């Protein structure tokens, strides 16, 4: 018998669940089958549930902080899983989420009108965090050969040389392309940032969702020089499906940069940490390894299933097979629909909700993003709806 259950369908409707209870509101169409948003339909590891249960039983939920034992668990996890030894708990800055960390970085280290470089198509909050704070996007578009995305380093060099460019928002592993950057790619990006004095803000929230033989390498681990100008954003939320507990952290080796970041985050914004998020984070990093290993097998199997299903039953729809993340892009361009036509087909004909590719930038036209982190029977139901609608 399998030690972990990734097959049972758990009813999530009526639990204030964004994925299942707000799909109609978000997409403007009722009764859509949700295949969007980076939220897994799997229970968190039992060790996390038990730790939360014990803390609830204590009965007092006052102001709190991250104990040393929590940072020890985080440090051990990063060293074991990603080969980066964080030498001191002082390097950590607790944050309520990666997006607030991105916004805090802009407030602390840039001025209105400064440019922020990012590799597009990319995680859509990058766009609105930059623009809503009066900064400007500099889009370094990825190259796509029909199968795999790669960096355009020549264009990155040109954009980095712009005196108004101050920061690189780097998504690693990349959402939604599914790329896990190689050491050579990371080194090339880091060298450009060093030459042009760019601050690197690396969103590594999907660091643990990587499929063999690929391996996530934190960009700050490349060298002390690169670490000194990098702010790495990590969290257990995507890994263990605990995003609702709002617990993440930034790793900032440089003490001056760290003090400035903390000052803006806590003194200016007065953002408190989440008691239960701390408990869940420590339990997950201490005891969640076997669960994650089993999850990766399930996700890899679902990716293979989705790829076969599309090739056999959904003409014109092709999975961009990811090296990491569980929310890969799907190339729908051969279906012959413009972006609005594709959205209308998926929602009104197939009755499914998928993130439109254009949400991640204009390069996403003709694409959609698919969530495969769900029991196989639900993945099959969603893809089956698309196949039946296309056939009809």
3D structure, described in words:
The mean pLDDT is 96. α6 (125-132) links the parallel β3 (115-118) and β4. This protein is of the alpha/beta class. A seven-stranded mixed beta sheet has the order 2-10-9-8-7-3-4, sandwiched between helices. It has a four-stranded antiparallel beta sheet with strand order 11-12-15-14. The chain has a two-stranded parallel ribbon with strand order 1-13. It has two domains: 18-45 and 289-391, Aspartate Aminotransferase, domain 1, CATH 3.90.1150; 60-287, Aspartate Aminotransferase, domain 2 (3-Layer(aba) Sandwich), CATH 3.40.640. It has helices spanning 18-21, 23-27, 46-58, 68-82, 98-109, 125-132, 153-160, 183-195, 224-227, 237-240, 255-268, 275-287, 289-313, 339-349, 376-391; strands spanning 33-34, 92-95, 115-118, 136-139, 143-144, 149-150, 165-171, 199-203, 230-234, 248-251, 318-319, 329-331, 352-353, 355-356, 367-369. α4 (68-82) crosses α12 and α13 packs parallel to α15 (376-391). It is globular and about 60 Å long.
């Amino acid at each position: 018998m399998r030690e972990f259950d990734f097959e049972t369908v758990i009813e999530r409707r009526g639990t204030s669940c964004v994925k299942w209870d707000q799909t109609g509101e978000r997409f403007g169409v009722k009764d859509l089958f949700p295949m969007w948003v980076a939220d897994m339909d799997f229970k968190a590891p039992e060790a996390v549930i038990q730790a939360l249960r014990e803390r609830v039983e204590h009965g007092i939920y006052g102001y709190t902080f991250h104990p040393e034992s929590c940072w020890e668990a985080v440090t051990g996890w990063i060293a074991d899983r990603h080969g980066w030894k964080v030498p001191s708990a002082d390097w950590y800055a607790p944050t309520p989420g990666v997006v607030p960390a991105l916004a805090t970085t802009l407030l602390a280290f840039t001025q209105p009108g400064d440019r922020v470089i990012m590799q597009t198509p990319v995680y859509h909050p990058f766009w609105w965090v930059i623009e809503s704070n009066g900064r400007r996007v500099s889009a370094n578009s990825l190259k796509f050969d029909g199968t795999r995305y790669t960096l355009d380093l020549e264009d990155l060099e040109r954009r980095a040389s712009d005196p108004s460019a101050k920061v690189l928002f780097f998504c690693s592993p990349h959402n939604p392309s599914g790329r896990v950057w190689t050491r050579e790619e990371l080194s090339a990006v880091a060298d450009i940032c060093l030459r042009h004095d760019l601050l690197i803000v690396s969103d590594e929230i999907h660091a643990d969702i990587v499929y063999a033989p690929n391996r996530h390498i934190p960009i700050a681990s490349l060298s002390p020089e690169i670490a000194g100008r990098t702010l790495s954003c990590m969290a257990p939320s995507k890994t263990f499906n605990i995003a609702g507990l709002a617990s993440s952290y930034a790793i900032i080796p440089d003490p001056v940069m760290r003090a400035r970041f903390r000052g803006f985050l806590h003194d200016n914004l007065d953002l408190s940490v989440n008691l239960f998020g701390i408990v869940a984070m420590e339990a997950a990093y201490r005891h969640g390894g076997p669960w994650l290993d089993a999850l990766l097998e399930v996700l890899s199997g679902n990716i293979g299933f989705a790829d076969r299903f599309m090739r056999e039953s959904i003409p014109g729809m092709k999975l961009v097979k990811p090296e990491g993340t569980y929310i890969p892009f799907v190339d729908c361009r051969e279906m012959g629909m413009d972006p609005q036509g594709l959205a209308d087909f998926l929602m009104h004909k197939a009755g499914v909700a998928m993130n439109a590719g254009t949400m991640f930038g204009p390069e996403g036209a003709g694409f959609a993003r698919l969530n495969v982190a769900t029991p196989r029977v639900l993945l099959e139901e969603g893809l089956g709806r698309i196949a039946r609608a296309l056939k009809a």
